[in-house]
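Exercise 3.2. Students should predict the tertiary structure of the chain below and write it as structure tokens, then compare their answer with the key that follows.

Predict this chain's 3D structure.
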Amino acid sequence: MSAPGATVDPGARRVLALASSALVVLVAEPLYLLVDTAVVGHLDGASAATGHQPGVPLAGLAVGGVVLAQVASLGTFLAYGTTARAARHHGAGDRPAAVREGVAATWIALGVGLAVVAVVWLAAPWLADLLGGGGAVADAATGWLRIAVWGAPGILVALAGHGWMRGVQDTRRPIIVVLAGNGLSAILCPLLVYGIGPFPLPWSSSASLHLPALGLEGSAWANLGAQATVGLLFVGALLREGVSLRPVPADMRAQFGLGRDLLLRSAAFQACFLSATAVAARFGAPSVAAHQIVLQLWMFMVTVLDALAIAAQSLVGAALGAASVAAARRVSGRVVRYGLVLGLLAGVVFAATAGVLPGVFTSDPAVRDVVPEAWWFFVALQPVAAYVFALDGVLLGAGDAAYLRRITVGSALGAFLPTIWLSLVLGWGLVGIWAGLTLFIVARAVAVGLRVRGDAWAVTGT
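Answer key:
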């Protein structure tokens, strides 16, 4: 058992160690999604062989993928809420209590995950038609989603696993688990999408081995394999801790109490990004495909920047659990400084590669022509987003979820959503959608900056 106060005064080395470990875990999923996007995107250049119109497979992945991404995003309360609660127990020196938070979160994940499978499988055609505008894009999205959604329980169990492991500052096992699942899936994705063979069998002159090309649905099967593998490995990690796996209703109710605000916060994000995809689809397959490329790069950078936020969650929670407000403030200052440096560097890199990087993800010139409408908003937002996510991590570690819920919902209703729908009415295209995202991020930056300057968030104890 950790001694109380063991993490009360973390230095720069500890912050960076936790952040670098979190970074490996965080980038594994978006890196796989970028591979997935690139593999499916190049189906566009083979429309005669695949039977697809140009742009449809990638647009179908964009629509189906954004629905599945909402499942993961709405489930982040399992990770963030569990991290905050487990970290306070860890800071107070009670590891078994911290791990029991993981048990409660895992049971919630399984129940919610099975409900999600049932609802999304039944609603997939309606959701795809709503977001994809009907036609071939909606049909492609429906087929992809009805396979991939079976991975929802694994996605949510993994979020719960990340939560309690971050809380106890376990930096090694999450890396192993995530790399095992997503690495396997990244290998399978091109094989399932494009097929392989035929290969002659050495024991027969007439027989051969042939894996048929599954097209877009091969991407869904690869997704499902990754999520199932990762979920099972996190359950195994709980078994090795030696705590009771019996569900405790009181622990689950406490998880839901904190999770309510985080869930509403996530719902605001999802309303915005679902609306953005729906509006982009109304401007045609090239627009929604271009939006998918820039959005996946955005999500990739969000996870990179979130590595520092996760370090802040764990260390701030442990510091407040050990009753040290001063240490929590020192963590806050460090993660903001490191985040700003990282965000500025990212902006420079993406600006320099604007003429090259989009071509990695699609061979369709119509899609590449639309990408710049969103690209320069994406570049300019990097340092602002770094500041926001760093302070989000501080406030999440402190359990200040109600405030984060209020500012996120307010920024969504007051900035992002009105701009998105105005862009549809006035024909602004991706420029309007990404202008809305910019207003959303700036509003949140002002709100979290003012909050951390005060004292209301720094509540000590378990």
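Discussion points: DSSP finds 18 helices and two strands in the chain. Residues 1-8, 45-52 have pLDDT under 50 and may be disordered.
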